[in-house]
Amino acid sequence: MQATALFLLISCLFIVHTVIQCKKELTLSERVQQLSDAAVKKPVLRFNGDKFRQYVKGTPRNYSTIVMFTALAPSRQCGICRHAHDEFQLVANSWRYSQGFSNKLFFALVDFDEGPDVFQSLRLNSAPVFMHFPAKGKPKKVDTLDIQRVGFAAENIARWVAERTDIQIRVFRPPNYSGLLALVVLLALVVGLLYLRKNNLDFLYNKTTWALAALAFTFAMTSGQMWNHIRGPPFLQKTQSGNIAYIHGSSQGQFIVETYIVAMLNAAVVLGMILMTEAASKRDDVKKRKIYAIIGLGLVAFFFSLSLSIFRSKAHGYPYSFLLK
Amino acid sequence: MGRTQTKSPSTGISSPVGVKSLLVFTVLLLAWMAGFLSRLFAVIRFESIIHEFDPWFNYRATAHMVKNGFYNFLNWFDERAWYPLGRIVGGTVYPGLMLTSGSIHYILNLLNIPVHIRDICVFLAPIFSGLTAIATYFLTKEIWSAGAGLFAACFIAVVPGYISRSVAGSYDNEGIAIFALMFTYFLWVKSVKTGSIFWAAMASLSYFYMVSAWGGYVYIINLIPLHIFALLLMGRFSHRIYTAYTTFYILGLICSMQIPFVGFQPIRTSEHMAAAGVFALLNAVAILKYLQSVMSQAEFRHFFIVAACTAAGVVFLAVVGLTWMGVVAPWSGRFYSLWDTGYAKIHIPIIASVSEHQPTTWFSFFFDLHILVATFPVGLWYCIKNVNDERVFIVLFAVSAVYFAGVMVRLMLTLTPVVCVLGGIAFSQLFEVYLKEEEPSRPNGGDSSDDDDDGEKNSRYDKAGKLRKMKHEQQATNDGLGVIRSMVIVAVLMILMMFSVHCTWVTSNAYSSPSIVLASYSQDGSRQILDDFREAYYWLSQNTADDARVMSWWDYGYQIAGMANRTTLVDNNTWNNSHIALVGKAMSSNETAAYSIMTALDVDYVLVIFGGVIGYSGDDINKFLWMVRIAEGEHPKEIRESDYFTDRGEFRVDSEGSTTLLNCLMYKLSYYRFGELKLDFRTPPGFDRTRNTVIGNKDFKLTYLEEAYTTEHWLVRIYRVKKPDEFNRPRIPVSQRKVKRRNVYLTKKTSKKRRGAIKNRPVVVKGQRPKAKPT
Fold it and tell me: Which pLDDT does position B52 carry in this prediction?
């Protein structure tokens, strides 16, 4: 029994070997045919070492191949590879279902666990890597996508592919329903809340709520949250000397934590002003009003001078300060 | 001063009304003068000159209008811009600015006061800042009180956020538009308060002026409908707002369509659709209110549901259908990028490239508004707490403007007025309660008389009864705050004083540079004027043919047209992206490729700005990546941004920079012969002071261009494009020449010369020997 199994295994190996041997002799048209057939079924072809050498490196070629070298096995713990794989899949799908789909361009994937020899031969020691193998010649330096600079969003990959191969791919992203869904859920919550509390809608007429909401929005905007949203600065930064910088040194930039501090300072000044005004206009106990007025004055004076001194540290050569240097 | 008007018939100086109006008049006059004078730094330091870029076009257009008359101005086809396309100026400008200064010039001339139109253009914005202060006073007075109005007027007169766009010489649309904006809002609030057709019609006239002056009128035509919509949501519908809005909308619509540049946009683009929708909604609500008074309740409820559903469906289908059919244009990119903040960066590099379209840091907010940025929320707080119809407006104004200012630095300009209004309210509120010791009146001089719609809610919250009870016991305890009172007043006055000092410092240091004349200060404080821009433009105007075409990056188009009066290819009116991309492509290709583009575009001269000698950071090499990006957007095959970076993704001009960069036209034109220049003893030759490196490609010759002029500090460099027959063709070795030289010796001598005659040789005329004279 064992012998037969062994025999079977050996014969299988032999057959596989001969098949590979046969494939080596495949002509160009046959290879293109096989690749096209496979690509119609699966936009991203999965290659192991042999197939890679066969189809991607084999000469002559009249097609370009975009290969992503990656490590998708869970044991490799490559989180970024998943994202890259999704984006790559998106580009390949867009190409598969585009008008200009042809056998001039194929998308392939080599997983480290399936073809470590490929990684070795190309001297790759990181993943994911996107490489373009042109129809003629070897890949040059620009045929590797610079992930650090360009990123691997599907649109960027498509632009890079267009640069390298002159084939334009319009990326069709399946529309992102999550935002819409969140909106619908939020609306449903609001409507549900209103329905539940339909007998008591007073909170809608509560001016304090509205005023607080407006103030919160104002503080968010005047502290530059929109800048953070658009530019995406770091939360805070370590300086060369190892200290942690909360405040960006120049007037052109800001850290996220810095904007929070500024929002707090502004809010404290506003609170102080309101306390002062209320202390003088309310007709309560004198002692309480006195304390309020002093607290208000202290808040305004201290926090305003604090924000002025932060401002001063950013604006080089600004001459004025108040209380604090 | 509606609050303090008394019935006393005497209006002399001794009566309180007289004193108060004199006081108001004096304060406003002083605010006007302070605002005017603090905007004169640039004139005093330099001269009465038009600043920056866009003002030069406005000035040129104004001068053209003054010279040729208004109708010729409207029909003006400018063949000196956007060569070879040209530009229809009359149909693509907001003519309000030119009309304003043109009519001032006309009136002064009628009065026999000869003033050059340039001086009017230079001083227009400072004068209008005073008018803005007055408009702000009136608006704040309508919303809160006269005292708050005076504060607001003083704030707006000196606040840097507004000065940045209205210093003397900054002859731009914004200078008059902020006045028009505030005045329109004042008239609108007035018409909402009174419900009179007169004020609404005045508001639409003022809106007309605003439309003629600035593209920012879209903000008004969206904010006012938003106000109405909010009022409807709050259940504050009244016939006052109905009258005000319907009058305003119809008149304003018709008026705005009279501006050639606006044309049919108000009924065809999405930006204006909100106003139309609110107009329909308001009418629907008015009809419903009427029917409610006629029908029974059950009938009305049934009718209401049916009508609301059909109306909503019809409106939705109509909007979708019209947009789909292309009758209503979708949002234009510039406005769209305000909502989808990442949009411009990806799709419209030409918008993203302008520095004033960047988002705003907190530093800019503080820089432009100082204490007001921290105190205007107080005014917002009190406006919401004591809300009425017109305060809803100011709240919406503040919240929307602060959002837009966060998205774009440039829109700080629309935030500044409302910040001044609310800051004025905050400070006047504070001073009112701290200065008036003996008067125990309600602090918020607000009149909540128009809260009649929600009267029963009001009665629940109204604290009037409580207050009245407090009045007598308060008199006993009033002197409790004695010392603290004066402490608070002194401290707040100190802060306000710091505000004014800050404003002056910022105005003087940041906003008062004409940017076409630069100044540098040496160690001992002496000043050196760098007048290279005008030097170069003057050279162009004197030494080139009248129809010479000058290629430069679009930033300098208006200046070349205005100062040198030469034809430009692209300018600051960036309406044609592909044309700009073509210029960008020429600048970022190598010399040969650039030459073919330049001959195709008939370019005679190329002008580049180079700051490497004096360390001027706004030069063309620093802007260069935008040229590449814009060119890449249109010509992705030829130009690739990645080619201009090093392998590590850096943009550097030294020897490690990418070869594409080191050989592109812009690099060569900037650094031509720069390698020979040794600036001082500490640095090697070819040291670029702006980028603090030694340049990478020092030794090169230009084949297709020749240096025509370089200004004193190398700030502006002008090159002449050679004609095809004059450039030195590269020498090809004899062995590689396809056309072999024939070995036939061809003499250049003519048959006459071949004889070897001497020119002008005295010719001996042979004759007969004279016979011997008979003696």
Answer: 84
Give me the pLDDT at residue B408, please. Answer: 86
Q: Which amino acid is at A143?
A: D
State the residue range of the domain holding A237.
Answer: 201-314
Q: How far away is chain B from the Cα of A76, in angstroms, using its nearest Cα? A: 27
Locate all alpha helices (DSSP H) within B7-116, ordered by sequence: 16-38, 41-45, 54-68, 70-74, 96-110
Distance of residue B660 Cα from the nearest chain A Cα, in angstroms: 14
pLDDT in tens, B580-592: 999 999 999 988 8
Identify which of B578, B587, B550 has the alpha carbon closest to the alpha carbon of residue B565. Answer: B550
Closest residue of chain A to B339, computed from CA coordinates? A226
For an interface test with A, the pick among B362, B451, B453, B502 (most A C-beta atoms closer than 10 Å) comes out as B362
Candidate from B429, B440, B485 with C-beta closest to A277? B429
Q: What is the pTM of this model?
A: 0.78
Place of tokens 């909502």: B339
Task: Tell me whether residues B636 and A211 touch, CB distance under 8 A.
Answer: no
Among residues of chain B, what percentage have pLDDT more than 70?
85
Pick from A165, A186, A215: which residue ends a domain?
Answer: A165
- Contact between B671 and B612 under an 8 Å Cβ cutoff? The reply is yes
My answer on whether omega of the bond before B84 falls inside 30° of 0, hence cis, is yes
Of the residues A165, A193, A227, which one is the last residue of a structural domain? A165
Four-CA torsion B176, B182, B183, B185, nearest 10 degrees: 140
Task: Tell me the shortest Cα–Cα distance from A53 to chain B, in angstroms.
Answer: 28
Whose tokens are 């650090």? That residue is A148
Q: Is residue A34 part of a domain?
A: yes
Same domain (yes/no): A153, A92: yes
Q: Which pLDDT band holds residue B748 (cuts at 50, 70, 90)?
A: low
Q: Chain B closest CA to A210's CA: distance in Å?
A: 7
pLDDT digits over B266-315, tens only?
A: 888 878 888 988 998 899 889 888 888 888 888 878 887 888 788 878 87
Residue B274 CB-density burial (10 A; 0-12 exposed, 13-18 middle, 19+ buried): middle
Same domain (yes/no): A309, A205? yes
- For B517, the token pair is 């004349």
Q: CA nearest B390: which of B221, B132, B195, B243?
A: B195
* Residue A252, H or E segment: none
Substitution target from A156, A202, A225, A226 for chain B, most B beta carbons within 10 A = A226
B366 φ/ψ sector (left φ>0, alpha ψ -120 to 50, else beta): alpha
Q: How far apart are alpha carbons A64 and A135 in whole angstroms?
A: 5
Same structural domain, A219 and A153: no
C-alpha–C-alpha distance, residues A101 and A172, integer Å: 14
For residue B185, pLDDT beyond 50? yes
Q: Is the peptide bond before B260 cis (omega within 30 degrees of 0)?
A: no
Q: Is the pLDDT of residue B473 over 50?
A: no
Q: How many inter-chain contacts (A to B, CB under 8 Å) are there? A: 181
Say whether A315 and B362 touch across the interface (CB within 8 A): no
Query: Domain holding A34: CATH number?
Result: 3.40.30.10
Q: Tell me, what's the ipTM?
A: 0.79
Residue A234 lies in a domain: yes
Answer yes or no: do A151 and A42 share one domain: yes
The reply to whether A20 falls in a domain is no
With CA atoms as reference, report the closest residue to A146 among A165, A164, A131: A131
pLDDT of A2 reads: 56
- pLDDT value, residue B439: 45
Average pLDDT, chain A: 81
Residues A214 and A146 occupy one common structural domain = no
Cα dihedral sign, A265-A271-A273-A275 = negative
Is residue B220 scored above 90 in pLDDT?
yes
Number of structural domains (chain A) is 2
Q: Are residues A118 and A224 in the same domain?
A: no
